[in-house]
Here is the input.
Amino acid sequence: MASMMLRSTCLSRPQIATGRKIPTCALPTDLAVSEVATGKSVEVDRLTYLRSLPGITAPFNDVFDPAGLSNTASIQDIRRWREAEITHGRVAMLAAVGFIVGEQLEDSALFYNFDGQITGPAINHFQQVKQGFWEPLLVAIGLCESYRVSLGWSTPTGNKFNTLKDDYVMGDLGFDPLGLAPTEPEALKDMKTKELNNGRLAMIAIAGFVLQEVAEPGVEIFEHLFYDIEKEVVLELDDIERDLGLPETPIPVLRTRGA
Here is the structure.
């Protein structure tokens, strides 16, 4: 998650149709505004721009787009999608950590409200939080989003509706209090790729967490994980005990909260 605190640094991309190098943080100036607005960008420029962005990684050594979404997209579309991917990835990384930590701190005075009254799987914590938490949280989220919009999004007039500013670096909010962002372009690009990959994994992980707890109501993520491990160990032990003519160890029972 280190690169979510990157400061402004532009990466130069390969030459495109005009023979000029432009930074990936900027919208290619060789595409007319009308082309950007209507999605008629030249295919070679679009593919070159995609390949210049962070996020291409093994085992996919080229642009991974099995649905062909970029085939008819403008570069502005691609920039907007990348901004969305980075933002959702960061939220998912925080959510995945919060999901696990929240379940470990339940029943503890360390948890919010300081009364240890929030219990059970994380998907049910939302309903248990008392008044006085959500109001400041919503205000904080609103302030953060307002700042992000003012920094990266164009004023929604004319053909600038729902588009990023031409000089905005996707995901760069100028927040790097620890000075972790490399100044060397290739190192910075590598760090951004790591952030994207971690965000992609986190989006899959948090979806899996939620679906697992919906499928097994009352069972927390680690309870489910360790139950499966314990069950496999007991089954292996039973095979040995059966061969030796010994009494078999009972298979553990997964207990849900409230059972």
In short: Confidence is low (pLDDT under 50) at residues 1-26, 28-41. The chain has two domains: 2-215, 219-259. The radius of gyration is 24 Å.
